[in-house]
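We emphasize that the prediction below concerns an isolated chain of 346 residues; any contacts that depend on oligomerization or on bound cofactors are therefore not represented. The input was used exactly as deposited, without trimming of termini.
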Amino acid sequence: MRTEPRPTRLDRIFARLDREPQRPVLDVPRMTRHRVVLFGATLAFYLTIVLAVVTTSWLVRLDWQAMLFRPYQQWPEIHAFLDYWVVLGQRGPTAVMVAAWLGWRCWRQHTLRPLLAFGAALLLLNVTVGAVKYGLGRSGPHYATEVGSNEMWHWFQAGSDIFPSGHTANAVVTWGILAYLASTPGARRWLSALSAVLSLSVGLTTVYLGTHWLSDVLLGWAAGLLVLLALPWLEPTIATAEAWLFTQRDRLRDRLRDRRGGAVPVPEPALLSPAPAAEEEPVPVREIVPPTAVRTSRASALLAPGPHTARSERIPVTPAGSRRPPHPDRLARGTAAPAARPLTGG
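Result of the prediction step, given as a token string:
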């Protein structure tokens, strides 16, 4: 009886992924004219903030005024709450939460685009923001050395990588990717507004705690928005990566099935052409041998060498004597038994 092998956990995962033969058609944002205009305006705002800080303009004086105001001393009752609220801008916890949600969407929609778009956005954010941070080398409020200075070009000083604000830029990208991947225009608008308010609140929380200048927050908000606006340019690369990953998945599935002795494809039957007619050969005539002769020859081949007699010619021989073993109290045949001895009382 042939039994089918029990499916493993990996087989069940592949079966779940193959449940939908056609992946759903998703609304992929394109780089429209409106988006290009918004990208150009955000880039101009970004460069304006950088120029204003480098030239020590009124924006730097505003930074110092906010820093010397010390909001954490003015409203100490909300300090404990904002210590937790600022976590919404940290890359580690927020990336885990958003990746879990997008992973569930990938599972339900049978596509890898949400996770790939999120990974591309984080990669672009790290490259662009990190390059500006270490290139400008601006020190934070806790490491300021001269009142009224822009605290730039301190490459080898501790805390000189705070411009732009990483918390703010990460909050814009992490929560804004949910709006970017929304399936309906209404959900996209609501999520865009929510992510904007959330990212600005996280940035202002860093100003309250004294870890960032106000200009850091403005530049971080613009840096995160530029990443989200540039994502449609990366959509062809994301689609190519998704197709490659699905191809590798199919190859791995086929390899595992072949290794476990899966079904082997049956080749199609080949069409055979008729063989050319050959000349008829004469059939040899076999000599008919009676079965008694065959039996005799086979029996004689199994007998030992020497003269043999037939069963009917053999004379039965009766063995002499008795076949019973000797016994001291046993009498021979034809002799009388001795008289019984009388019993005597004692």
